[in-house]
Amino acid sequence: MALKFGxxxxxxxxxxxxxxxxxxxxxxxxxxxxxxxxxxxxxxGEHHSCGTELVPDPFIFIxxxxxxxRHIKLGTGVVSLPYHNPLxxxxxxxxxxxxxxxxxxxGLGPGSLPTDAAMIGISMAEQRGAFEEDVDVLMAILRGESxxxxxxxxxxxxxxxxxxxxSDFEITVAAVATPTGPxxxxxxxLNLMSVGAxxxxxxxxxxxxxxxxxxxxxxxxxxxxxxxxxxVGPMHLAETKEQAIEDVRHGLDAWCHYSQHILAAPHxxxxxxxxxxxxxxxNETGLGVIGTPxxxxxxxxRLEEQSKGFGSYLLLHHEWARHDAVLxxxxxxxxxxxPRFQGSTSRLQKAEDYAVSRWAELDKRQGDAIQAATDRHVxxxxxxxxx
Length: 387
Hints:
By secondary structure, the chain is an alpha/beta fold. The chain folds into 2 domains: 4-345, Luciferase-like domain (TIM Barrel, Alpha-Beta Barrel), CATH 3.20.20.30; 349-386. It is 50% helix and 14% strand. It is built from 15 helices and 13 strands. It has an 8-stranded parallel β-barrel, surrounded by 5 helices. A two-stranded antiparallel sheet has the order 6-7. The protein is globular and about 105 Å long. The mean pLDDT is 94.
């Protein structure tokens, strides 16, 4: 199956202290760029604390960004479902689907920032169990059912939505460090997004994620589809590996510091104290790529082999490099990596090969034809002069 490609935007803006208006404008600029480059999709996160991941409501951001783009699909990546009443998430999803007229996707997760959950009194121990329960409720509402359900976080009485879906929009569940994501996806017949797919030890997580899908989905009458499986990983590309490394001197250290000392998430933590150690951590552990398009191709081929097949690769968006270099990295990926897995240039290559194989013959014929036309013209002028 031909891979699809997109971006997963938390989005990160490290270090704290940058103007948030300009930071958000850069995010919009990236989405416009991805749309122009032919990326298939982008997912926008929900975060409320720590000062770095600056989109608190992906629905608002997506509705705005839809007016700035033409083709790319936009998804919540992801809605932290236990923070919300599932009825309102269903309403927002159906409304956004109608606004985008088929370009909307719904991504769901339990929430990734412990400080977010702490501010609204949700304990780490209950968060994933609450997510499993809330997805069941949400899916019933999206199917058009009338739901009565009560938890310590909300009460629903004959709850239903006014809107019907505009499209058969895709729903996907994020999976990071636990089996919660694949359990929920398998039970509800949803797709899976492995956010920690390429982290240290992440290949083991890949096997765990899909094993859970294949084991659990048939119990609920579903068949998991690898075409809907998304893997997420970071890359920064340049024409040479040396240039790529020089580019990320701008922001790699700040991004790593955020994961090491600000974000309380042991499953998402950089390794290394020096810039050189952190570059090696990205490149040598299989986490991602700081290098060239050829390095990116090898990484995706390795992921294909290890996972035994998936449908989409999402570039984890970051600002390791300056904005112009970030845009250039996406351009290099679109121009030199995407075609290798999508076959979009294979017929172009065959067309060129055919032209090369006929070049000598057709070049001579073309020259002969041009000369013959010139000779006829000269003869006609000469004959007209004599007359």
